[in-house]
Amino acid sequence: EVQLLESGGGLVQPGGSLRLSCAASGFTFSNYAMTWVRQAPGKGLEWVASLSVRGGDTLVADSVKGRFTVSRDNSNSTVYLQMNSLRAEDTAVYYCGKAAAGWGISEWGQGTLVTVSS
Amino acid sequence: SYVLTQPPSVSVAPGKTAKITCGGKNIGSKSVHWYQQKPGQAPVLVMFYDSARPSGIPERFSGSNSGNTATLTISRVEAGDEADYYCQVWDSSSDHVVFGGGTKLTVL
Q: With bands split at pLDDT 50, 70 and 90, how would you rate the model's confidence at B58?
């Protein structure tokens, strides 16, 4: 059974940093691209970033470019989202997902809440 | 940037057919994926590559994509289908994943 477990969320002040982790199990992690998606309270889904199998290709949404970076550790089956210079509008539930062909997302974690507030 | 447009809401009576549209410029040339999200839960993939159903998704769910509109069709709608539905594509011109704004399906 595929499992994706996000962690690292919490309350942070504007301008602060957080690193989210997503631990994967139940599939051969190193064979799949991974994606981060967020959802602000009461809003729709917003793509944040995607990362290729080996991590050589990273794709980042314009709204977070220059502030967020995505990386992976295939030896630990974990994908990370480093979030710097956080803003109030970054407040959201952050989901990691196992990418499928065509950059769909075949499996999702349960999400971790990030709240940016003073 | 590429934009996907969905109706904010669709209502349907139980047992009837619901059609949720996703509009985008020449979307027929792209692969469309659909997600179902119930309150307080993570999204679930219900359709990929326009019309392919993941295992475990009922045959009542079907998809199509042509021209400027992709459609998710749910036949014989049940109360348990009430959820938010999102379409999604990969925009190769910008190397971005794009989501539609979502459609709230209400079962009357």
A: very high
